[in-house]
Write a structure and sequence with these properties.
The chain has 501 residues and is α/β, with parallel strands linked by helices. It folds into 2 domains: 268 residues, Aldehyde Dehydrogenase, Chain A, domain 1; 186 residues, Aldehyde Dehydrogenase, Chain A, domain 2 (3-Layer(aba) Sandwich), CATH 3.40.309. The strands form 7 sheets. It has a 7-stranded mixed β-sheet, sandwiched between helices. It is globular, with a radius of gyration of 25 Å. The mean pLDDT is 95. Bound molecules: nicotinamide-adenine-dinucleotide (NAD).
């Protein structure tokens, strides 16, 4: 029998009568579980418990919060393989890749464990004569997190450990396509000493999201997903008076300069273009290559890509799995078709290699390389989000930078070069939020913050790291004087200033 997964509210599983969301194993195309859109009654119960837990959590010392997060880190470490297995089943990510995702998530818990250090305020003694002033950072209350399908453990871990460490309670609404790993990491959190209800999880789709954003008990919204949804979540949050950070989609370019080490470059580029079947917001999906090295580059690329393994039987670190759903597979295939119709040349066709494997089940697509791509093609301008690498030829570094800067997205990019001068010029002039120099996936560590420019991020603060701390807190500035007796100088209606005092 197919199991309904319910929601997690106040530390317990809660089930609805109506089941309306099927969850598939993308490697087999079979339904593995069902979920339900959270009903109004469930949403109400959740919000009540989130507010109650926030009120309790406020009185926990920072040291206690930190020790609970440390307890959680240990639980995640212990269960890393189990979490990865759930991700493989629910999303089709190969095991080693799934383990890597969980490890990157745990780094954010480690950062949050140091909350005592991170949350220190700012203090000035005698800022005005006999006046002291300091700023401290207070929690917001109930924070909502909405996450995408492609990192069901890592992206929630970008959000809730820091939101909770800074004193908030958190409601997670994971992707309806693969919520199982998100549920498991919430279940693990509920095994710590944290008050029940501090971290709740509601399943559902857009309707659940908009009910939650509109509710006055929700104080802030962290969103990660596609650009159109990020924009609409940001707009709804703004009109509802909520603080919001909404991270969107991407189209990430790799510039290959003539002085790059081609062997190193193609190794790195292949990992970043085809890892997770290209379903990463930092995946390198466009290779911008100088014409003088293009032939050598493409030969090396094709030679290595032809050895990649994909499909049901090859789920190890040198292989890749399926796309998340039938609809997504069709969307990626449509973009390949569109590229052909727009005049690009398919060098390696994942649709054909997949047919050769004679696979009938699962949402697999082989690695695809498309050459002669031009910047006016629709298939280039949009995010494809699959194992597809598009190749564009250039003759000059400024031409490449201009091309990259014209993209409506601004998430990540990378330059492959052995010249410090060129690398410096590239990173200085490219209008992109995260830049790699010979690093194909420049995902910042948890000590920094993650976020793109342009249509890749709506909001003022990046996610996790120092910006995450600012996002989940509000500044309070206290100015104080303890007058000694008899020091009154009488009433003065003019604006107080230091010179007068
Ligand atoms: P998506 O936008 O379809 O869904 C993301 C979340 O929003 C899900 O929880 C979904 O239920 C919810 N949602 C969907 N439609 C909604 C609506 N109209 N109103 C409110 N909520 C809605 O994204 P996806 O397909 O799950 O994920 C892939 C996308 O996420 C890609 O575009 C990828 O680039 C992007 N992504 C971005 C980052 C980043 O850091 N910038 C990271 C990971 C993924």
């Amino acid at each position: 029998m197919i199991k309904n997964i319910g929601h997690i509210v106040k530390g317990k599983y809660l089930f609805e009568k109506k089941k309306n969301l099927d969850i598939y194993n993308p490697s087999t195309g079979k339904i593995i579980s069902t979920a339900s859109n959270a009903s109004n009654a469930t949403i109400e119960k959740t919000l009540k418990s989130s507010v109650e837990a926030f009120n309790k959590w406020k009185s926990y010392s920072i040291a206690k919060r930190s020790s609970i997060l440390f307890e959680y880190k240990v639980l995640l470490e212990k269960n890393i393989n189990k979490i990865a297995k759930i991700i493989s089943k629910d999303l089709g990510k190969v095991h080693d890749d799934a383990v890597g995702e969980v490890r990157r998530g745990i780094e954010n818990v480690e950062y949050a464990c140091g909350i005592g250090e991170i949350l220190k305020g700012e203090f000035n003694r005698n800022i005005s004569t006999t006046v002291d002033s300091w700023s401290e950072f207070s929690p917001l209350g109930v924070v909502l997190g909405i996450t995408p399908f492609n990192f069901p453990a890592m992206v929630p871990l970008w959000m809730f450990p820091l939101a909770i460490a800074t004193g908030n309670s958190f409601i997670l609404k994971p992707s309806e396509k693969d919520p199982l790993a998100s549920m498991f990491i919430v279940e693990l959190f509920n095994q710590t000493e944290a008050p029940k209800g501090l971290l709740n999880l509601l399943n559902g789709d857009r309707d659940v999201v908009s009910s939650l954003i509109k509710d006055e008990r929700v104080n802030a919204v962290s969103f990660v997903g596609s650009t159109p949804v990020a924009k609409s979540v940001y707009e709804l949050s703004a009109v509802s008076g909520k603080r919001c950070q909404a991270l969107g989609g991407a189209k990430n370019h790799a510039l290959i300069l003539p002085d790059a080490d081609i062997d190193y470059t193609t190794d790195q580029l292949i990992s970043a273009a085809f890892g997770s079947s290209g379903q990463r917001c930092m995946a390198l999906s466009v290779a911008v290559v100088f014409s003088s090295v293009k032939k050598r580059f493409l030969e090396s690329l094709q030679n290595k890509v032809s050895k990649l393994k994909f499909g049901l039987d090859n789920l190890n670190s040198n292989s890749f799995g399926p796309l998340v759903s039938k609809e997504h597979l069709e969307s990626v295939e449509n973009y390949i078709q569109m590229s052909e119709e727009e005049g690009a040349r398919i060098l390696m066709d994942g649709r054909i290699s997949m047919k050769r494997k004679n696979s009938t089940s699962g949402y697999f697509l082989g690695p695809t390389i498309i050459d002669n791509v031009k910047s006016n093609m629709k298939s280039y301008q949009n995010e494809i989000f699959g194992p597809v690498l598009q190749v564009i030829e250039v003759d000059e570094i400024n031409e490449a930078i201009k091309l990259i800067n014209k993209s409506k997205f601004g998430n990540g990019c990378c330059v492959f070069t052995s010249s410090g001068k060129n690398a410096r010029s590239f990173s200085e002039n490219v209008e992109i939020g995260m830049v790699g120099v010979n690093i194909p996936l420049p995902v910042p560590s948890s000590f920094h913050s993650f976020g793109g420019w342009k249509n890749s991020l709506f909001g003022d603060l990046n996610i996790y790291g120092p910006d995450g701390v600012r996002f989940y807190t509000q500044r309070k500035t206290i100015t104080q004087r303890w007058p000694s007796s008899g020091s009154s100088q009488g009433v003065d209606l003019s604006m107080p200033s230091n010179l007068k005092q």
